[in-house]
């Protein structure tokens, strides 16, 4: 899930729960002939892992520390349509939100344990009403797809898979399917689903138990065994570690802040050196700013999942559907050589490279955002799309064009009349805020020579081919 948070990778300390899981997998691999993990997961390798477990250094420096008190967690439902919106189940259930489709699918939410949790909802209902077999509510369709074939086999072996089928669930093959808008079971305009679908439908994300209970009752709800937490006042979280501060960590935090302040002052006082520009590489890039006013605009918004595996789409077709899930009007508003500016965490979500290549197909050479998702940023370089992070520009655009009191009715894609010029050689941008408006500059990161080479070659693949060609020529 680090990808969903725009992180490139995530490291977690190993614990006893993980050790038990690895031990079980090692036993499976040793006794079952069909396991491909026989060489990868062995008791010897588990012993080696826990003999020297991965831990952070005591003096490790972090950009930010956050804590979450797990004892205060209660069931939540995300949505509609954004994981940034979360509502406690006991607040959402009384609203009796009718659903049309329910999904227990995807690699993150359909392991054997998840299917068992969902099946238990129907088994408990059957035990409470032995004369009435539990069935999915009228007008609701429940879709199930295991995270993998072995996970489905495990669910079938204990009867959980059949329990869900008997209740009326429709089985789908293991794979991405509805989550990326492919295959059957997609939400239609106006429908409500507790899990993915059409941009004009409403989507909620929930646990397997809540999805199963909602499918059984026809409205978003929890299983009958669910009890509202007593004296619950919310999830306890915040900055830091949540532990009582000590003199040692107070001093450490103070020193880190002072070092950070010194670095910022030095970067302001020291003029940046000019970047060495490759022959033929543009020293300046300039264009009118097109503003897509949204944070967390993910790769599915940039390039819809239903096109991801259509290899026969032409460059023109890719340009036409670019940003379709975010704003269907994007294609008619933008022009060649525009500069696309968006909010923070642009390009989060899945790693599909078409999110970068579709923007290039629109003949947009540069993306500027408050911050870029790490995987999108890397994919951009790999495919010759340039990107910059300029938080100040996003803030200025929002101050000028967006009313905070009416943000929900903002214009999704706007021709601003502002121009941005990136002086690549001087690592400096200049923004002209419309005719007669303010002009300002800001220093940005350097575009290094090796990145210039990749972009000039047309992307990493083309660069690698060229380098192999050079090496082959030199050896002949």
**Order of neighbouring strands in the sheet with most strands:** 13-12-11-10-14-15-16
Number of strands: 16
Radius of gyration: 26 Å
What is the overall shape? globular
**Weakly predicted, low-confidence segments:** none
Distance between the termini: 48 Å
Count of discrete alpha- or pi-helical segments spanning 4 or more residues: 16
Which sheet architecture does the biggest sheet show?
7 strands, mixed
- The chain-level structural class is alpha/beta
| Mean pLDDT figure | 86
Describe this structure in words.
34% of the residues lie in helices and 14% in strands. It is α/β, with parallel strands linked by helices. The strands form four sheets. A seven-stranded mixed sheet has the order 13-12-11-10-14-15-16, sandwiched between helices. The radius of gyration is 26 Å and the shape is globular. The two termini are 48 Å apart.
Properties at a glance:
16 helices; seven-stranded mixed beta sheet; globular; 476 residues; alpha/beta; five-stranded parallel beta sheet
Layout of helices and strands:
Layout: H1 16-31, H2 43-51, E1 66-68, E2 76-78, E3 86-88, H3 89-92, E4 101-104, H4 112-128, E5 141-144, H5 149-157, H6 160-166, E6 170-171, E7 192-194, E8 202-203, H7 208-217, E9 237-239, H8 247-269, E10 284-292, H9 299-302, H10 315-321, H11 330-333, E11 339-342, H12 354-361, E12 366-369, H13 374-382, E13 386-389, H14 391-401, E14 413-423, E15 428-432, E16 439-443, H15 449-457, H16 460-474
Parallel strand pairs: 4-5, 4-7, 5-6, 7-8, 10-11, 11-12, 12-13
Antiparallel strand pairs: 1-9, 2-3, 10-14, 14-15, 15-16
Helix pairs in contact: 4-5, 4-6, 4-7, 10-12, 15-16
